Amino acid sequence: MKKIILITLLTFAITAKSQESNNTNTENPATKSYSFSLEQAITHALINNYSAINAGRDIESAKKKKWETTAMGLPQINSSLDYQNNIELQKSLIPAEFFGGNKGEFMEVAFGTRHNMTARATLSQLLFDGSYIVALQASKTYLKYYENAKIKTDIDTKEMVINAYGNVLLAEEGIIILEKNKATLEKTLFDTKETFKNGLIEEENVEQLQITLTSINSNINYNKRLLDVSYKMLKIALGIDIDADLKLTDKLDNLTISNLDMAFSQTGFNVGNNINYQMAQNFQQQKELELKLEKSKALPTLSANVNFGYNAFGNQFQFFTQNQKWLNYSNLGISLNVPIFSSLARTARAQQAKIALDKAKTQLTETEQRLKLQYANAKSEYEFSIEEYETAKTNLSLAERIEKKQQIKFTEGLSSSFDFNDAQRQLYAAQQKYLQTMVEIINKKASLEKVINKI
């Protein structure tokens, strides 16, 4: 029976270990594998981005702070235990004649016991305090601020992921085009060398192609290093380990086409939907509450408390024995505090709060105007990126035809290597410009969406 149990447990352990090793989400972050479209990457980042995580924690902390403020007006119970050891009792002088002594003489008398102990409990309740009412309102504004901060973090995270995702695709597409150009150039260089061996062209033509090939190899190496850095930047934005395996499923051209929407740029802009404007409003509300708080300090405060306790005395420390006698006491108290005159200190604080509120109102107006300008700029740049994309697409087609014609002329000896080289450089620049305009469309639309507060 024991052997059967041992075999069963061993089989279970091996199976569990096998399942664990086949799981992509293992404990070691470096072994995790991810595959994301752009939308999936955004969704993942909104949950796992480091800033987004801490923004969520700020909200939880604000909720606790709100309850802390609320609890200030709820019943409070405190208890205490005090012990006093009178090593040397304090002496007092009384007329000696009270004890049969001579008139005019005094006797030293010690009052009290060596050991004293008091155990008490206090129940206190705030009945009215204008500052507490304002504090409750402020705690809601405090929470709203961090909720808005979380939205702002999510919007920033989305834009950061879009930019990082596009940079990776740009580097990948750049490498693909460069490798294609390299293969074409290598074939042309081989044919040119063969022609040179036959003495039909000058060696300068071969050398010019070799210079171009060396430049392409250098650009390929640079783009590969750039791709590695771009991937790491994207992983950080996603909140995953930079050594994890990441695969992007979207293609640059597909993302570009999906972001080509001139009608989107014509959508009206409501500044009230922008998170920065909402946070500016939140700041103004805070200043309004600060002014209200200073004014409330001129109101009276009322509180009540109930005390209940026991006292014990003795010349021997025997408080925890059955022979010790405890004397109980209790009382009820109400405290009313009425501010009367502060030498205009409260008025000065209220005036400072009023000035701070006026500044907040001015900042809100400034924020509104700046956001309108930011929207107009983002709208213009997005529309311009679409125009640039169409232009780059046309120019690329023309550059490809020119390069093809120059290649044919160069092969047939009708064109010099300098003309062919100029056509190649023009083509390579057009290719990079085309890729860059594709990424610009994606990024500029993300910037426009950020202004209109679209998550």
Q: Would you mind describing this structure in some detail?
A:
It contains nine helices and eight strands. The relative contact order is 0.12. A four-stranded antiparallel β-sheet has the order 2-5-7-8, with no helix packed on it. The protein has 455 residues and is α+β, with helices and mostly antiparallel strands. It is elongated. Helix 4 runs antiparallel to helix 9 (417-451). The model is unreliable at 1-27 (pLDDT under 50).
CATH architecture of the largest domain: Up-down Bundle
**Tally of individual domains:** 2
Helicity, as a percent range:
55-70%
Q: Please report the distance between the alpha carbons of the first and last residues.
A: 62 Å
Low-confidence stretches: 1-27
Specify the structural class.
alpha+beta
The CATH class designation of the largest domain is: Mainly Alpha
Percent range for β-strand residues: 5-15%
Mean pLDDT: 88
**The CATH topology of the largest domain:** Outer membrane efflux proteins (OEP)
SS elements, strand count: 8
Q: Name the strands of the widest sheet in spatial order.
A: 2-5-7-8
What is the rounded Rg?
Answer: 40 Å
Order of helices and strands: HEHHEEEEHHEHHEEHH
| Superfamily (CATH H level) name of the largest domain | Outer membrane efflux proteins (OEP)
